[in-house]
Amino acid sequence: MPGSGKTLFANLLKEKGFTVISMGDALRKRYEKDAKYGERLMDYAKRIREIYGDGVVARLSIEEITQSTTKIAFEGVRSLAEVEEFKRIGEPLIVAIHASPQLRYSRMTARMRADDSTDVNILRKRDLDEISLGIGGVIAMADYVVVNDSTVEEFKKKSTDIIERILR
Amino acid sequence: MPGSGKTLFANLLKEKGFTVISMGDALRKRYEKDAKYGERLMDYAKRIREIYGDGVVARLSIEEITQSTTKIAFEGVRSLAEVEEFKRIGEPLIVAIHASPQLRYSRMTARMRADDSTDVNILRKRDLDEISLGIGGVIAMADYVVVNDSTVEEFKKKSTDIIERILR
Ligand SMILES: Nc1ncnc2c1ncn2[C@@H]1O[C@H](COP(=O)(O)O)[C@@H](O)[C@H]1O
């Protein structure tokens, strides 16, 4: 979910030698070529899911693989249909990063990235949008959940433990 | 999700003075009076949700409150629509208990409760049924997540910490 800390987790994966493919970037690449005038990224994503199926962003992301390695992570999975696509090319493990809405909203308000809003109603609406894509099912079926509810150091420690369990 | 350890968490809540209302029991009570011949509990739940709305099992559960106390826990929330019903009577906090499907399936196979199956395909099908009710959205929006992936003792410790944070 937005503001949970998944990018920080992805950076730790990179440090451990993983190739991280951002599903958002794979989507954005297609969006820049293909979107309708004035269409929002989220609406574009919904539209291509309707045309090509719920797994389409996973397939666009798989296209981004350039090397042959098993240490690949896809950042930004939103539905179990996407997980099914990854199962066609390997044996994916799902890692979910969790923080409460309250914490996520205050972090997003603090960091103020261009696409983050500071209005809690807008942030909540965006959460419900993500949930409508099916992200909740992915979290429910996760192999690992990292709870990011204290310090960055604590989160890094928990994340590193989990990455080591995965690599074992 | 089935087999994650939510009943164990509910028992700890009881020890701390909470009244725990099982949403499954509230549903079952109505089911026993009202179900069609041969209808499964889950199918009955889906049917009454279609008739009365996605929050109906929460409303049946709220009917079960007999004392006036703020220390009430509802076990078995399956959708954000149910959370909205609870918001009408108070300020609910969501606690999700997480364990990986692999762990949950092996625990359910070991305990063999009446409504547990040992066939992984059936367990997975039941998971997807729960997800179709909207449980993933509830987990995604949880205020607290307890990860139940090691021993019972460890889980009890983490749970007690969280209950104490809630009561503070
Ligand atoms: N809030 C709910 N909404 C719909 N079905 C429910 C709900 N709570 C329990 N159930 C059903 O009751 C069964 C037993 O629930 P539980 O006691 O939570 O394990 C589940 O498999 C569900 O089919």
TrEMBL record, chains A, B:
GO terms for molecular function: kinase activity. Transmembrane segments: none annotated. The keyword Heme does not apply. Keywords: Kinase, Transferase. Gene3D superfamilies: P-loop containing nucleotide triphosphate hydrolases. Signal peptide: none annotated. InterPro entries: P-loop_NTPase. This is Dephospho-CoA kinase.
